[in-house]
Amino acid sequence: MRPFELTAPATVEAALDSSGTFLAGGTTLVDLMKLDVLTPRQVLDINGLPLHGIDTGDGLRIGALERMADVAAHPGVYPAISRALLLSASQQLRNMASIGGNLLQRTRCTYFRDVAMPCNKRHPGSGCPAIPDAGRMHAVLGTSDACVATHASDVAVAFVALDAELRLASAAGARTVKLADFYRLPGETPDVENDLRPGELITEVVVPRLDWAARSTYVKVRDRQSYEFALCSAAVALDIRDGRVADARVAAGGVGTVPWRLPAVEEALRGEPATPESFERAASVAADGAKPLADNAFKLSLLKRTVVRALLELTEGSSR
């Protein structure tokens, strides 16, 4: 780790007027600093700022500095969000990591984290060794010739499925952006991962009120039971009336370069009976447009099965 200056601004305004890298839980930033992937000269500890609180009065509002463990345990949090958090990392990390920091965490691609290797996310134009390596863990959706790294966050998948928005603050003012629009596909600029502007700070996550999101879940498939990133995941919410799907929200993780909303699956579910057969038909379009590498083509069928499994959990009451 290289030398840096640590300061702790007392107010949001002071933080926004300062230049440096924001530090909350530090569970990603400190790791990357130790690896020399990130080398900020000034780090701003923002843990003392008033960016806390969970409000479930009308929808769901979560302060950016709320810890993952506290959000997961809150009784008013939609099940898909709570489950996604509980299936993330270890209990110790969930006690430390902030919601805002989790949404900004960097990919776990081994080439990105190894400074001895080229990586277009670290050094644009240097190349992507994951593509010829045919990486098993990499993305099949939203990829480009410059990058195939998956997005690492679990809870971002649930937030995207439920149309969450981010409240952002800067010295120039505040703005709101949908989380699904916040993340950027790699294209030819994989180093630009999101729409966060210089000096801007996430202050709050807002999930619109959706009464039927009480029927929601998050399914995560991984190589081992705990402390592992997703090979594939699915966040699903269903509105079922008279045995038919009136509405649906579906998003996937572990397969895309960003949290991947599946509107074609949602449309295929609407109006159909809530049966395994209709779920199979809807999930059959989940991997449309995918571009697998040599070693991760299995993710196409895995994505379809994971979506079906999540739908069945919500309609059959099974717990996995």
**How many separate helices?**
13
Strands, total number: 12
Report the helical percentage. 25-40%
H/E series, N to C? EHEHEEEHHHHHHHEEHEEEEEHHH
Assigned CATH superfamily of the domain at 212-316? CO dehydrogenase flavoprotein, C-terminal domain
Organism: Amycolatopsis acidicola
GO molecular function: FAD binding; oxidoreductase activity
Pfam family, one: FAD_binding_5
Domain FAD-binding PCMH-type: 1-212
Task: Give structural notes.
The protein is of the alpha+beta class and 320 residues long. It has a domain at 212-316: CO dehydrogenase flavoprotein, C-terminal domain (Enolase-like, domain 1, 2-Layer Sandwich). 28% of the residues lie in helices and 20% in strands. The protein contains 13 helices and twelve strands. The protein has helices at residues 12-17, 29-34, 68-73, 79-86, 91-96, 99-103, 110-113, 130-133, 155-161, 179-182, 263-269, 276-283, 298-316, and strands at residues 5-7, 21-23, 42-45, 54-55, 60-63, 165-170, 173-178, 201-207, 216-221, 232-241, 244-253, 260-261. The strands form three sheets. Strands 4-5-8-6-7 form a five-stranded antiparallel sheet. A hairpin with a 2-residue loop joins strand 10 and strand 11 (244-253). Helix 4 packs antiparallel against helix 9, helix 11 packs antiparallel against helix 12 and helix 12 (276-283) packs antiparallel against helix 13.
